[in-house]
Amino acid sequence: MVHLSTVEKDSAAQAPPLKGLENVKLEQPDENELTETVYGSRFAAEGLPSTHMPEREMPKDIAYRLIKDHLSLDGNPVLNLASFVTTYMEEEAEKLMGEALSKNFIDYEEYPQTADIQAKCVNMIARLFNAPTHDEADNAMGTSTIGSSEAIMLATLAMKKRWINKRKEQGKDYSNPNIVMNSAVQVCWEKAARYFDVEEKYVFCTADRYVIDPEEAVSLVDENTIGICTILGTTYTGEYEDTKKVNDLLVAKNIDCPIHVDAASGGFVAPFVKPDLEWDFRLEKVVSINVSGHKYGLVYPGVGWAVWRSPEYLPQELVFNINYLGADQASFTLNFSKGASQVLGQYYQFIRLGQAGYRSIMKNLTRTADYLASCLQTLGFIIMSQGGGEGLPLVAFRLDPALVVREDFSRSRCDSLVTDIGMAVKTLMSMDKERIDTHLEHVKKNTTRTGKVSGKHAHHQYKKEKHSLQGKTDKTHPIC
User: Fold this and answer.
1) What's the whole-number average pLDDT of the chain?
2) What is the distance, to the nearest Å, from the Cα of residue 396 to the centroid of all Cα atoms in its chain?
3) Which pLDDT does position 452 carry in this prediction?
4) Left, alpha or beta for 351 (phi > 0: left; psi -120 to 50: alpha)?
5) pTM (2 decimals)?
6) Is 358 strand, coil or helix?
7) Whose CA is closest to 89, among 337, 347, 394, 306?
């Protein structure tokens, strides 16, 4: 998800970093004092350009070092335990992906083997999700995406268009579509509903339930419902929503309503840790599934996948047959040009690890998550997530945000985290409430996680919107 950047006014662009420093000037170096080294050059004295493209060139080694220095203030991805995104791949995978940086994935005619690799990945994922493959007259289909957000947008479009077509055939009004989902959905679901004019019908979480309630979800379905979204691994507690119960209720009540499963996080976990869990195409009402390759698919961001049960659930008018650079191709995507590296990285992981490799990694992560949960419970925290493979390898506990156990989160790193948490608890216990509240208020108002003054990435005109769940209820959105 990319933030909306503000274009600085000229006055702000020329302002000092803090008020009160207007009269403090940096002494300009003498030309004879400058050298060709990075920190002896004029570029180090001038600072990085921020608002105007510079007129003159910069030596490549200096450009590299100054940007690298600037990025050193970012957090360490390996230590970011609030994110599911993959932070480790083998050198061979990185080399393969690097060699494909210049390939435009959409150019099937020029890069047919790369396009073939996407087809291989789609086939593997579809079968992992138990897509029907026995009917010669019908077939499942899928596509790669930039991530699960794009996949969810495509799935929403498909459900809406299919619903519209049915309403038109019946001679009924098709102006008020709605979709049923848990209020704990990732923000891309809110975007999909808003962008494509679909009303959101939420099953709200309660003090002791953070997943969708199947009975309530089905009760919200009416003639204008395009589908129900269930989540295989919520981003808050990692729980798997009961897709089978939703499916069975729809079947028992003879309700014609499709289910889309948001398996962004759990799609590459559940099949290996809990293979008997019925959440996928084994259920007749499940018509489409998305999954993130850059989460537990173990590929660097960003790559996602969308799979449909059959052409019945992907209306033909949404698919464009395009002759591009000499080749006919069927396209269902929100973007066009994109790099080929992530798709190749996904295929590398599939054939390098195989099912046995994924199974070993996911079970190791599950054991580590269970160990971490036990340690935190011993320290007095209340564990909100489920262990034993009943949910994602995620540890959610009260008083602090959830911690994600990724591929590179080893036992030794876990022990270090437990030690740090123990020290933090000890420090918090020694602080009075007023001091804690004052500190939290200061952080909230003035700084980002790197300590810099906040506000650059939020345009003032959009700060107080009231159409999202965050705007309406002060809901926070976890990082994915």
Assistant:
1) 88
2) 18
3) 52
4) alpha
5) 0.84
6) helix
7) 347
